[in-house]
Structure formats: C-alpha cells, structure tokens
Amino acid sequence: MANESRPCPCDIGDKFDYGGRGQEVQVGHIKAYVCKPSASADKAVIVIHDIFGWQLPNTRYIADMLTTNGYIAICPDFFVGQEAWKPSNDWASFNDWVKTRDAGKTDKEVDVVLKYLKDQCGAKKIGVIGFCWGGAAVQHLMLKNPHLKTGVSLYGVISRFEDKHSLLHPTFFIFGEKDDIIPLEQVTLLEQKLKQNCKVDYEVKIYPGQTHGFVHRKREDINPQDKPYIEEGRKDMINWLNKYL
Q1: Which of 1, 7, 156, 200 is deepest in the core (most CB within 10 A)?
Q2: pTM, two decimal places
Q3: Which InterPro entries match (predicted)?
C-alpha cells in the first residue's frame, strides 16, 4: 500500500538502454561523467541529475546530446556517494530520504566542478541544466552563483524555492501540463513572482499533455504522440543555452 503514495514520480516513462559516450572521472571529492565534443570548445554545461542519480542512462544521454551541440558536458554526483533513489524503494520513505539530499546545498560541489571545467577543460562560459531535483538545484544556483552564465530548470520542484525569485542570470523553466507533482497553479504563481521580482531574462513554458520527466525519460518511439513535445523541449533547451553561452 505504501508504494501507492508517490511524491516524486520521476520513474514514469521508459528508460533508455544507453551506455554513454563519455567517461567517468574524479573531480575533487566527487565523481563525474564527462563528455567532450570532437572539436575544441570553451563552453560547458553542468548537468544536475534527478533523484535517480548521476549514473542514470537517460541523464547521460542528454549530456551526450549537449556535446553533439558543441558543449563540454559534465554530470557530477551531487549526492556525493550517497545512494540514488531506486524505483523499487518504498515511496513512503521518500520524504525522509530526500531530506538528506538538499538541492539547496550543492554550492561546494559546483565550485569544485567550475574549477575543473576552467582549469582542466578550458571552459570560459559555463551554464547549468537540471531535472526535477536537479531543476530545483538550478533555481538555487541561478539565485546566488555569479560564475554561471545561464540555467535551464526542467520540471524543477518549485516549492523548494517558492519565496525566492531574484535571479542573477537568464533562466528557462520547462514544465509539463500533466505533471502530478508540480501543479499548474504553482507554475502560474512562479510566473507572477518572476514578473514582479526578476530583472534578468527568463521564460516559463508549459508543454501540452506532458508528464513529469518528459524531456529526459520517455522513449519517443514508444510514445509517438509525445514525440513532438519531447523534441521541442530538447530543442528549446539547446536554443536557450546557445543564446546565453
């Protein structure tokens, strides 16, 4: 019975059977997945994983997609060795589990990754994207980190930072219309607060009929009706990064 309560249904949709084109490296005190384009690049994107962690094939697929668009992509282990959530876990324990993994306490890891990207990869302009838990982390970083140029928050849990909207950098927010954990009323309120308080460029976009995790979790060939929106979300993400990086 406990599993019927799913406060964060990130495992909706099908997982990619995907190995990744990059490599795992040690970056300071954390591990990270890194993928670099064939040509030299001075632009990089930090990819912040969802509750399923930095080794999820879906997230690595997106990192590799960024690389094919000319970016150095790095997906660090923001859980710093703690176990990622498993779909088989009891969802009744989720709230206690997530309390030990605070999306608002990623600054130390981000600083280490920024130094690595600048010193080891030659990155001069760095942005950040994140999914669900990672989307909330993006919002946190856009509020306070001066070294990042832009961010894309994909179905980030709004309630985590609902009282903070003075973004430092241009930020793009992606949401699904049918997201069970991010009601449209929250999205509307976010837009209102950003309009009142935000002095940098931002965009909030809702994709029709889409559920939580649609950009990086569903297989386009299995869900043909969703394919246009999945492709649109990915294209919008890349276009935003291209504009500000």
Answers
A1: 156
A2: 0.92
A3: AB_hydrolase_fold, CMBL, Dienelactn_hydro
The region, left, alpha or beta by phi > 0 then psi within -120 to 50, assigned to residue 36 is: beta
Domain containing residue 62: CATH number: 3.40.50.1820
Q: Within a domain: residue 194?
A: yes
Long-range contacts of 135-140 (CB under 8 A, 24+ apart): 135/48, 136/103, 136/104, 136/160, 136/161, 137/48, 137/78, 137/103, 137/104, 137/106, 138/48, 138/171, 139/164, 139/171, 140/103, 140/104, 140/106
Is-contact 48 130, C-beta < 8 A? yes
Helix (H, G, I), strand (E, B) or coil at 51: coil
Integer-rounded Cα Rg, in Å, for the chain is: 17
CB neighbour list of residue 53: distance below 8 Å, 6 or more residues apart: 77, 79, 83, 84, 85
The residue segments making up the domain with residue 149 are 23-244
Backbone φ and ψ for 195, nearest 5 degrees, come out as -60, -35
Residue 78, φ and ψ in degrees, nearest 5: -75, -5
Which residue reads 């980190």 in tokens? 145
201: Cα separation from own chain's centroid = 19
Q: How many domains does the chain have?
A: 1
151 confidence band (pLDDT: 50, 70, 90) = very high
Summary mean pLDDT of the chain: 90
**Mean of pLDDT values over 16-24:** 82
* β-sheet bridge partners, residue 175: 206
Structure tokens at 12: 């909706």
Residues known to be catalytic: 132, 179, 212
